[in-house]
Design goal:
- The chain has a two-stranded antiparallel sheet with strand order 1-2.
- It has a domain of 58 residues.
- With 89 residues, it is mainly alpha-helical.
- It is flat and about 55 Å long.
């Protein structure tokens, strides 16, 4: 399949133009969201609200705790022991 146009053996397999448009719309929305968050942070900073860095640190701590919990759960899983049935098989 051609990664530039999405054709394979003369057939359109993936509509690359539509995917490019979706990606561009998604990136534009993301950029607008970031600009809005920056404006909110600037307004909150002027009002004397806590800095966003504090929230980021809290989120990082929560994420680290969840990762540790997941690692512990993975380590705690033990393979089931094989047992013989009553008839010795």
């Amino acid at each position: 399949m051609c990664l530039a146009c999405g054709f394979y053996n003369g057939r359109l397999v993936i509509d690359m133009k539509a995917q490019a448009e979706k990606r561009e719309a998604r990136l534009t929305a993301k950029k607008e969201m970031i600009k809005g968050q920056q404006a909110e942070a600037a307004a909150a900073e002027e009002a004397g609200a806590p800095a966003p860095e504090q929230f980021e640190q809290q989120e990082d701590a929560k994420a680290a705790a969840l990762e540790n919990k997941a690692k512990q759960a993975d380590a705690a899983q033990v393979a089931p022991a094989t047992t013989k049935t009553q008839d010795g098989k």
